[in-house]
Amino acid sequence: MNYADLFRVTLPETALEIAALVVLVVDLGFLRKAALKVRVAVAALLGVAGCGAALWALQLQGHIWFESDPDAWSTLLQTGFYVQVAQTGILILTALTLLLLIDSDFTKHVGEFVAVVLMAAVGGLLIAGAQDLLVIFVGLELLSLGLYIMTAFAKSSAKSAEAAMKYYLFGGMSAAFLLFGFSYFYGLSGTTNLTGIQDAISASGPSPMFYVAWILVVAGLGFKVAAVPFHLWAPDTYEGAPAPAAAFIASVSKVASFALLITLSWNWLMMGRPFEGSSDSVEQFLRRYYQTWPKLVLVLLVIAATSMIVGNLAALAQVSVRRLLAYSAIAHAGYILLGIAVHPVYLGQGSPLEFLANSWSPFIRGVNAVLFYILTYGLTTIGAFGVVAVVERATGSDRLDSFLGLHKRNPVLAAVLLVLFLSLAGIPPLVGFYAKFNLFAAVLGVSAGPVPFALVALAVALSVVSLYYYLQVLKRAYVMPAVDESPIKAHPVTMAVLVAIATAVVVLGCFPALLQNWIESCYR
Predict the structure, then answer these.
(1) What are the residues whose beta carbons fall under 8 Å from the beta carbon of 511, sequence distance 6 or more?
(2) Backbone torsions φ then ψ of 399, nearest 5 degrees
(3) 183 CB burial (10 A radius; 0-12, 13-18, 19+)
(4) Which residue from 348, 365, 463, 484 lies 20 to 30 Å from 339 (Cα-Cα)?
């Protein structure tokens, strides 16, 4: 790999960095005395243009990279496959977040805010494609620092400052756990490359320090996806952060973090690349490696189950819609972790080569189901926060009673809220139903047995529970009388984005193959 290859593989990140610089120059150099609405619109549109340029660069470098270096498994960054799916989702969700910023007035420093959003998105892109511990840590810190700053950007809000401080303190602690885990992996393997770590550990067998390192890494990443017991920052952050920042945290940050978990799963919980060697070496590798698997995955399964339980039950008691969405995000993180944790296990029966051939397909199906889930969940969550932001600006609160009589005050906004919340609850024919059904079917299809079945049954039962707290919001919007029937107005761009998101949720629910086929095409 030379510097030209490195530049080409980082084209999307470079496009976002240039866009961030252009936003700062235009806002601070040319629009300093312009009206705030003009500055917000220009900065947001420039940021969206940067995301569009990065999308174009992503399509370009995907072909160039694999033509120039087909053996990309041992590099610092990977492109194509699930990485292309995650990075495309990150860029689209970032653009939608910036479009929702047009109707915001929480800060006068709009150029700086958009630049921070774009740089945080760069961190997300690095995380999604990273194949090396050092790149992972740099990407995580770039993303995390951007999120801390965005959370604190509403300087006139005490809740924003409090949320940012809590987020920063918990984030610093999680970074320490993650760095300790990475250092132990390096000490055990002598390399920071994920595939090299896999080869070293599988060749020598896992040691007690290996399991300690794995638990530390899971703790660090559990914070990023707001999984129990690393979720304490999420409710305060979702409630106190400006609406665009909260939407970014709930969508882009989740897509990037789960893409990283897929990478680790690909390399450490499953065969990250075709195993080259004799039949005996394959069998020896599989016996040792898949005897380790249940111990590693047990941690993820416990976190998944507790996240589903705590997230759904805690959401029942919330009177703030933002906090409700936070606990809902914790529950959804538990659902997604099921798809990442469950893998085929080699029990020493039959040909090991046949096992590799037979297990690869269901593993890919599980990865595809996770990608479909995180992309559609991120899209739906951005729309939900967009609706909450409009109601919050009109009423001054995000409490449940702020949504009273919404169908009379703004029928279109109420219809968007109905579609998005029913999709989050998993009601057909919306995309949330197919995402859950596809994920749970993939979990059962990958690994038969009582544990996967019990976990899926628990997830289905808790999905029914989640319908109750989503209906609490919809009941106030459609059934309970309004205290104030004055119209709620929103910026035309905001309404257009929210209607487009709701339309996409309906269309993808009725025709899920549109997204599923594209995800599968990225593997060809």
Answers:
(1) none
(2) -70, 160
(3) middle
(4) 348
Grouping H, G, I as helix, E, B as strand and the rest as coil, residue 186 is: helix
| Sole residue written with tokens 């628990």 | 458
pLDDT averaged over every residue in the chain? 85
Tens-digit pLDDT profile for residues 206-215:
778 888 888 8
End-to-end CA distance of the chain: 23
The whole model's pTM is what? Answer: 0.91
What's the total number of domains in the chain?
1
Alpha carbon 188 to its chain's center: 30
Biggest CA pair distance of the chain? 75
Q: Which residues contact 376 (CB under 8 A, 6 or more apart)?
A: 423, 431, 432, 435, 505, 508, 515
Helix ranges (DSSP H) in 410-449: 411-425, 431-446
Write the burial class of residue 481 (CB in 10 Å: 0-12 exposed, 13-18 middle, 19+ buried). Answer: exposed
Are the C-beta atoms of 226 and 234 separated by less than 8 Å? yes
Amino acid identity, residue 441?
Answer: A
Evaluated on CA atoms 196, 197, 200, 202, the torsion sign reads negative
Please say whether the beta carbons of 388 and 321 come within 8 A: yes
What tens digit of pLDDT does each residue of 246-298 get? 999 999 999 999 999 888 877 665 543 444 444 445 555 555 555 556 677 78
Which among 260, 408, 423, 234 is positioned nearest to 322, based on CA atoms?
Answer: 234
Classify residue 248 as exposed, middle or buried by CB count within 10 Å of its CB (0-12, 13-18, 19+). buried
- Measure the CA–CA gap between 87 and 7, rounded to whole angstroms: 17
Residue 207 is classified by DSSP as -
Domain enclosing residue 205, as ranges: 3-521
Rounded-to-integer distance, Cα 418 and Cα 407, Å:
10
Instruction: Give the separation between CA 116 and CA 147, rounded to whole angstroms.
Output: 8
